[in-house]
Amino acid sequence: MMLNRGKARAYANIALIKYWGKRDDQLVLPMNSSLSLTLDSLYTETEVVFDEKVDRDYFYLDGKIQDMESTNRVNRFLDLFRDAAGINRFAIIRSINYVPTGAGLASSASGFAALAAAANVASGLNLDHRELSIYARQGSGSATRSIYGGFVEWKKGTNEEDSYAVPIDDGKWDIGMVIVIVNSRKKNISSREGMKQTLLTSPFYNNWVESAEEDLKRIKIAIENRDIKLIGKIAEANSFKMHATMLGADPPLLYWEPETIRVMEIVYELREEGTPCYFTMDAGPNVKILCRLSDAQRIRRRLEQGFKSKHIIVAGSGPGITVL
Ligand code: DP6
């Protein structure tokens, strides 16, 4: 039955093996499989109401009406649900982001996963998690993984029907992340544009894809063994390889800032002192540090010597989508 209204929460995820490049832009099919950790302290809550009284979709983010570019992206995404459920009403979408938007903290991941979960209820489609991850993928690739909690793999698949996320490990052990917001301004080049540019022009691109598949196999074994040192080492190297590939693009893509490297140096120091912690960076200057959750507050205190405490976020492993 169609309820017209649905509300859901989805948590952000940070990739340990990155997705960077599509083999199909329209269907959002990735060049390689990826793997992430869903986080508990960064999330998006979204409500979708299919309303016969409106003549177009209205999208409010953090209380502000959004421009046509973002509204059109949401509109195209909701069409997937409308087409499947035979709905001819437009929608009012209200979203609250508990993630700094566009700061490289995967706001599109929690955003489209929450939107998918809310639209699923509002449309009465009742899709299961696998189908929802296929839908979420078409909004934003990384959103595929936010359907589930803990460690999640997005299988690249062979076609539009078998490219979806699968839960790998619930993450209910001593694992977490410390995030340093170096700069929360919206990035100049979106992931979407950046990955296209890299795929088309970087001479390192094919090696990136091959090496990411290899990293994925190895990290899955390390996760199974709860070997945080090996998980961290593989993730850190994978992030470096993605950034090296971006630097090879024409024009080159450099997302780091001086403070990004400062955080890396602190992580190296902490490691020297015996704390297992490893960084990973996405399409922005912020740094996510993978560590034992039981070490996170100590790492935070060290970082507070050089960064404002409001710019440091501690997160544990988070759950999958929740209907509200
Ligand atoms: C660097 O999922 O934002 O965070 O599919 O075009 O919406 P679109 O891209 P998006 O890209 C995320 C890229 C990344 C790595 C990752 O999360 O795997």
Structural overview:
- The protein folds into 2 domains: 3-170, Ribosomal Protein S5, domain 2 (2-Layer Sandwich); 176-316, Alpha-Beta Plaits (2-Layer Sandwich), CATH 3.30.70.890.
- Helices cover 38% and strands 25% of the residues.
- It contains 8 helices and 14 strands.
- It has helices at residues 68-85, 107-123, 129-139, 191-201, 205-224, 228-247, 258-272, 293-303; strands spanning 5-17, 22-24, 29-30, 34-51, 58-61, 64-65, 90-97, 151-154, 165-169, 176-180, 277-280, 287-291, 312-316, 322-323.
- A hairpin with a 4-residue loop joins strand 2 and strand 3.
- The protein is globular and about 60 Å long.
- 49% of the residues are buried.
- The model has no long low-confidence stretch (mean pLDDT 95).
- The structure holds ligand DP6.
- Ligand DP6 binds at residues 15, 18-20, 28, 34, 106, 108, 140-142, 191-192, 282-283.
- Ligand DP6 binds next to helix 4.
Q: Mean pLDDT, as a whole number? A: 95
From the N-terminal CA to the C-terminal CA, the straight-line distance is: 18 Å
- Tell me how many strands there are: 14
Task: Indicate the CATH architecture of the largest domain.
Answer: 2-Layer Sandwich
Shape: globular
Order of helices and strands: EEEEEEHEHHEEEHHHHEEHEE
- Give the domain tally: 2
Structural class by helix and strand composition: alpha+beta
- The fraction of residues in strands falls at 15-25%
Q: Low-confidence spans: pLDDT under 50, at least 5 residues?
A: none
Q: Tell me about the largest β-sheet.
A: 8 strands, mixed
CATH class of the largest domain: Alpha Beta
Heteromolecules bound: ligand DP6
What name is given to the CATH topology of the largest domain?
A: Ribosomal Protein S5, domain 2
- The helix count comes to 8
Helix content: 25-40%
